Amino acid sequence: MCGIICYCGHKQVVPILIEGLKRLEYRGYDSAGFAVVDNKEAGAGPQSMNGGETNSPQLKNLRKKTRISPDSGKKNKIVKTQGRVGRLEKKKIGLEIDATFGIAHTRWATHGKPSEINAHPQGDCSGKIAVVHNGIIENYQELKKELQEKGHKFKSDTDTEVIPHLIEEYFDGDLEVAVLKAVERLHGTFGIAVIHADVEHQIIIVKRGSPIIIGVGKDEYYAASDSNALAPFTNRMIYLSDDEMAVLNTSGYYIKNLRNELLEKQIEILDADEYRVDKKGFEHYMLKEIFEQPESVKNAFRGRLIENEGVSKLGGLEPVIDRLKNIKKLIIVSCGTSYYAGLLGRYIFENLTELDVETALASEFRYRRLKLDENVAVLAISQSGETADTLAAVKEAKRKGALLLGIVNSVGTGIAQITDAGVYNHAGPEIGVASTKIYTSQLVIQTLIALMIGRYQHISFIEGSEIINAITKLPEQIEEILANSKEIEEIALKYSRYRDFLYIGRLYNYPTAMEGALKLKEISYIHAEGYPAGEMKHGPISLIDEDFPTVAIAPDDLALDKMISNMQEIKARNGKILSITNVTAHKVLDISDDVIYVPGTLPILQPILNIVPLQLFAYYIANERGCDIDKPRNLAKSVTVE
Ligand code: F6R
Which ranges of 81-235 would DSSP assign to H, the alpha helix? Predict the structure, then answer.
């Protein structure tokens, strides 16, 4: 949610910031802006006063800390726009900026509506300090009042604007000290980047709660809210932890904690292929990502199956395997699509293990009086690894002593860092705001974890082997569904003008109904309710008429006969039915207006296949309605606010 990109080096900074912002735009896209110090600006330029040097090996090239005399006469050049990065790019044409360091931001509004004034960077009164910020400053109102009483003039409705003014208040020639003092006053979550027009070539970054990654180039340094933005520039990254500060300049960087102590952090080398981002000829990232599922599903189980033992092996869980064997209860916490993956996870773990399993919405988890101890494992599922609600739930579970596990796609992110052990999806970046390939990957990985635990419990070698066999067939079965996409598109077009939909399923496909409905509503803005089919008669059936179609997920499983009864109740009220099924028998066909067939697999794996046509169905309807599929209104990819 909101994206930050910063650069400090010897190249022209504006094209780098724009390129980075484009790659971050999926995180938030209602306004954008950048701040640089233009070399053409009139002014005396900074005067260097040496500060302390350090002897950390990380700091080999670090030039002496820069202190400056109070006023060089320079000011930041801040360029902002409401709307997309494309508009910002147009706006900078003709400005002829000559600058080699700067900070930039793309916003998802929290405090203050989307507008140019509320866009970041936000500045101070002098025009010298500029700040970009992800997260929320919870005590901004009291800070704003205090600063206004001291004479600071505010222009925006944002919480962020208090940060540059606070820094200005504390600034007496040492930007680092001023930032440290300001940060001490902030409550909430933040990833911030700060520049000062008089402190040339220095960017100060601080992280608490919102992710920030440092990119290390050759005599050039970057910072960004995720590694996707840095991928075109460098594959050497440092993941900051909470309450850490990085100071970047052209000849080096150093990292400190907020007690001003130097830290040594490891540089991680990213696999460039995992971070390659392009549409590969597809019209939208979402469509590309739907079509990537044979590969992303394969990546979820590649190297993780021991076929001759009928078991799975997950390297990331090895360090906690003894603890895991003794766990009695598993609580899966997550949000949105990842929550629906967890909802299905409950059925998977209940089926394959002896664990007592619960699924919890991360945003509600911390309000509960749950008994969590060393016999409980909490499994956080998150594509971004940054979702604030999920992170808060994990922190709560940590306080109470539970074993913390994660399934995360984005490497090195907050949830991956805080958990005791975990499994990466290795699905590559997911750029479309609506999650698709990660959902199916999350289902596969939960099955692998359940199988691993279950094989220590009651699951036999034969059962384990059957599951493995079925998992390995999934990629080609997904290919089969994708090969049918034209037919699915034709069916979608028939349904594209309805205003409301009901999605129903039972057992393993109750979560499929929820996720199918979520896909439709978030990208097409059509009202769609997901419901467990058995609950329909307790209320929602009152909605059904000839203008309110139902998508029924009705595969061949223990619940099929009951599903058919529910579908008959809909037919009896003139409701149209589109069925997703692997059953060719008349009992499904006769009560369906349209049918999308999917190949059959084990009932616990069937949802991995059933969701694929529902993703395509939502996509084609949204496309037909001319919606902005990769960037649906009001949404953002990673939700770093509670
Ligand atoms: C919906 C969607 C969201 C996310 C949710 C959690 O398509 O993408 O509902 O699933 O915001 O995000 P992560 O998985 O990053 O924690």
Answer: 85-92, 140-149, 162-170, 175-184, 227-230
